[in-house]
Automatic annotation (TrEMBL):
Residues 2-76 form the PiggyBac transposable element-derived protein domain. It holds the Pfam family DDE_Tnp_1_7. It comes from Amphibalanus amphitrite. This is PiggyBac transposable element-derived protein domain-containing protein.
């Protein structure tokens, strides 16, 4: 299931996965709860770079297309390794 940034939340991803067995991919607003600070911040990040975090089989990607802009995507469908054409992402475990 694909969802836009107005409907996606980590809680929704977990609920659909746990209760209905559905996989979800969707962009997130930076103001959503349960997001790590380093994923929403663009300070010190290079344009074109990505950060990836994992928690409970959910992958969160923060892509920085340009200075002071971050695009957040949550997925219960995808897991590393993914194919990267430019730089490899920084990977970390995310805990709240």
């Amino acid at each position: 299931m694909c969802v836009d940034r107005y409907s996606t939340s980590i809680e929704l991803v977990e609920q659909l996965r746990d209760e209905m067995g559905l996989k979800l991919v969707g962009t997130l607003r930076a103001s959503r709860a349960l997001l790590p600070k380093e994923m929403t911040s663009t300070e010190g990040r290079e344009p074109g770079g990505s950060l990836i975090c994992h928690r409970n089989d959910i992958q969160l990607v923060s892509y920085c297309p340009k200075t002071k802009k971050a695009v957040l995507v949550a997925s219960s469908q995808h897991r590393l390794p993914l194919h990267w054409s430019t730089r490899p992402p920084t990977c970390s475990e995310w805990s709240v």
